[in-house]
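Appendix B. One record, verbatim.
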Amino acid sequence: MRFHTVVLAAICLSGSAFGFDLKGVELGKFASHEQLRGALGVVCIGKCGPGRVIIAGVECTTAVAFDDEKKVDEIVAVFGLQNFEVINTALMHKYGLPTKTLTTPIITAGGNHLTGVTNVWSDNAGNVLSIENYSDATHGRLMLATQARIELMASR
């Protein structure tokens, strides 16, 4: 019986320590210039420029934002919308089922009816990972953001 209690406690602890990362760059943590370049293709010389990286076999354009303490505050990866399912499946494999799924009807300029899908994962600290299939007419977007970044974006 004691063994079961220890295992259950370990499972609960790992759930509360849940955090998000993209290719080893962790949200809310410091990341060196070398780590950003190697993992996300982002080059930082004074300011960080956009990068290119392969995520789940899909080429993506990446960007990183930092908070005042130089910790990673947001990571964004943009990809061709036809690759949504590939990246979404990889995220579900890594993080489990989304915390919530939002659907939005979309009507294109040509009159086509589409369904926008956004899957969202949240951790206990209020950080969010989301993926959406139609961030614009040709791209999907993966975003990891700290709770502080989400609050900042909401206040604008």
